[in-house]
Structures are given as structure tokens and as C-alpha cells.
Amino acid sequence: MTSYSGNTKYEHPEGYIQNIDPASYEESSIEIPSTITKYELITIDPAEFKQTADTGTMELNLAGTGFVLEMDPGIWVNEGMNESFQNEDGIDVEREMEPIYQYNGIVRDQQETSNVLFTMDNQTVLGTVYSNTETYVIEQVGWVMDNNTKRTVYVAYKESDIEYTTNSSYPSGKELPLEFIVFNGDEYPHIISVELFDSTGTLLYTNIYALDPHEYVHPPEMKNTDESYIFKVTLDNNITGTYSFIPDTYDYSAADIYIDNDSANGGAYISFGMAIA
Question: Which top-rank group of organisms is this from (predicted)?
């Protein structure tokens, strides 16, 4: 049984966030980076979160700290963009991408010392809150099965609760390359499309991969020019996930995109992570 020794529960009066205990669910798959020593496991209602952000003011509790956030109007970062997929006849066609929104803001009364960034779609909420000298992070780490419904699980933590190990064989900061790995951990072949956006919503990379069981691809390295990136991944034309990736500034790192087996439900699902050398 997985140990969640760093998991700490906090109150969430805002309502659209709930802390969870994975052991209380019938089934779960959660991967937490070992470098995070103290954190909170939560679920988020994306629709209510977005609705509250759209009002311009929202209350948010992360890792035991309460904030009142003043948010700018959301930006539809992929408006007018299409994605390619194969229909049931194996013909390549295009369709409009599901909306991805970006919200920027500040912590109230911290005009000069704070910054807020959330990225979300209809299923996922990712983001950071920078307040004074501390950064608070929301990342996707897995799922729990709740009454036959798969719910996304997030880890919320402070960057000061990360224990970094310095690898002197790699450069630091933006000299690090931007790269990712896609691995099919299922017993069946799958088609997976990958789209990579920078923090402004500009499409940097797109490709479609047909992967046999346990096959992986490692696309060429790209130049790292931004603080954060958004991966949008579609599995077999009907399962979509997004991942906000912040390249590690202390060690070489790459984004991991997994196709995992979901034998209990006769299918597969997408999960994300970070590989640190």
C-alpha cells in the first residue's frame, strides 16, 4: 500500500476544493514526486472553480494558507485552433479543440509582490500562486474511483517544502533543454496526440504517435524559453488530459506522459509526471 506520509489535511471553506484520503476510495492511482516532503491531496470542481474565477474575486486555501485573489478575465488561449484525429473509418479529419483558459491575477493587497496563474479546461485545473517570497502549486498527480466515477487528484504544496538535489552535470535555469517522453504502459496499442503550448497559449509543437504495447518515444529536445508550458494530450481520439509543466531549475528534468492500463474498466487512461535525472 502506498504511503502518503507527507499528506496534510486543511480546511477548504471555498467549497470547490476538497481534501481527500486515497485509502477511503475503492480504487486509486496516485504518483507524488518524492522530493515533495509536505503536501495536500485534493480534488477540484473545474466548473465551479472557473465560475468563481470569472467573478473576478475568489477565495482559495492552498497548503494551509488562505488567499483572496483578484483575477483578470480569462483568456481562451486556443480559440480558433483545430486538432487532427482519425475517425472510425481511419480518415484524418479536424475538429475544434476543447477550450483551454488561462487566468492571471494577484493576491489582494500584494500588488507588487504576488502573481497568480491558472490554466484549466472542462476537466482539469492547474496553477501557481506566488505570494511575497513563496510559491504555491497545484499539480495533477492521479485519480480516485468514486462511485464508478474517475475523479482527478491534485497535489497542493509550497515550493519551500521541496527537497532539491543538485546535479552538477547539467546546466541550470533556462539553459536546460525542454523535452518530454511518451510511454505506452498498456498491453494494447494506442494512438496519442501531443500538443505543447507556452504560457501565452502559443502552439510550439504537435504530433501524433502510434505506440505498440510498452513502446515509448522521446522527441528531440527543444529550446527552453519560458517559465511554464502546457501539454494537451488526446488518447485514441476520445480521452483528453492537460498538464502544466514547469521545468526544474535545479536539475535536468523532462515531462513524462504515460498511457496506463485500466483493466478494471477495460480501457486505458493518461497520467503525467516529471523525470529528474
Answer: Archaea
Q: Within 13 Å, how many C-alpha atoms sit on residue 59's CB side?
A: 8
Residue 230 pairs in a beta bridge with 197, 244
Phi-psi category of residue 226: left, alpha or beta, with phi > 0 → left and psi -120 to 50 → alpha: beta
pLDDT at position 277 is 46
Cα gap 130→136, rounded to integer Å: 6
Largest distance between two CA atoms of the chain: 57
Nearest to 155 by CA among 22, 48, 262: 22
Grid cell 485519480 — which residue? 143
Residue 3 backbone phi and psi in degrees, to 5: -95, 135
In the three-class reduction of DSSP (H, G, I as helix; E, B as strand; rest coil), residue 116 is classed as strand
Which residue would you say has higher pLDDT here, 3 or 101? Answer: 101
- Give how far the C-alpha of residue 143 lies from the chain's centroid of Cα atoms, to the nearest Å: 12
- The CATH architecture one would assign to domain 170-277 is Sandwich (2.60)
Closest CA to 161 of 183, 137, 184: 137
* Secondary structure class of 72 (helix, strand, coil): coil
The pLDDT of residue 175 is 58
Residues contacting residue 119 through CB under 8 Å, at least 6 positions apart: 77, 100, 101, 102, 103, 125, 126, 127, 230, 242, 244
Q: Where are the domains of the chain?
A: 1-163, 170-277
